[in-house]
Amino acid sequence: TAPLALGQQPGQRRRPPPPQSPLEKVAAQEGLSLPQLAGKWFLVGMASRCSYLAEHSYQLEATAVTVTIGDGQSLAVSTFRKLDGICWEIRQRYLPTQAHGRFLLKGRGYGGKVDMVVGETDHSTYAILYYQKGQSISVKLYGRTSQVSDTIKDKFEERIRAVGLSEDVTYYFPTYGFCDSADEFHILDGELQI
User: Fold this and answer.
1) What is the DSSP-derived secondary structure letter of residue 152?
2) Where would I find the Lipocalin/cytosolic fatty-acid binding domain in this sequence (predicted)?
3) pTM score
């Protein structure tokens, strides 16, 4: 018979450890500088098994993001995108976790939280961010301009394969038609689906 674990009673089974989250395997950017991460970014590409994204990929709209650093540690993210021809702003606040380069977006209800890791960035050209909601993971490529080099795209595609995603769930966004602002009636505070 197997030896008993500390505090285990005879006849009790050991509970298996919880499955490792896909994001736990992703290393955060060494030397990440939040002030340098601040500013305007353009969503260049995204890899996700999201069924809504797959069904509506022909409707992808140019998406711009502005990052500001709140209280020196949290990320205030404003996402600007069109929906039915109207510019919307979606505001989110990513709170720092214990680990550098890892953040948490608190969502509504059970399972509403989104974990985010700044996986790789040079702060001036591109950033690769990983998001996880439940067991679903997605990876986004941002650029300081709406287009990035093929070398950076290759790096992005390498990173998405490393987390079990593939080219058939990778989408590249339009490079024109961006919104810079939204009027007061088209601002949402909350979560953006991944």
Assistant:
1) H
2) 38-172
3) 0.84
* Domain assignment of residue 19, yes or no: no
d(CA 22, CA 135): 7
- 146: alpha, beta or left, given left = phi > 0 and alpha = psi -120 to 50? alpha
The per-residue DSSP string of 45-81 comes to EEEE--HHHHHTGGG---EEEEEEEETTTEEEEEEEE
From the list 87, 86, 93, 32, the residue with the least C-alpha distance to 67 is 93
In a domain, 106, yes or no: yes
* Tens digits of residue pLDDT in 48-84: 998 888 888 888 899 999 999 988 789 999 999 998 8
Q: Name the residue range of residue 48's domain.
A: 38-179
Q: By mean pLDDT, which of 35-44, 53-62, 135-144 is the weakest?
A: 53-62
Pairing of strands 39-48, 170-172: antiparallel
Asked whether residue 11 is domain-assigned, the answer is: no
Q: Among 111, 134, 99, which residue's Cα sits nearest to residue 22?
A: 134
> How many domains does the chain divide into?
1
- CATH number for 69: 2.40.128.20
Residue 81 · residue 182 · CB < 8 Å? no
Identity of the residue numbered 119: G
- Say if 189 falls within a structural domain: no
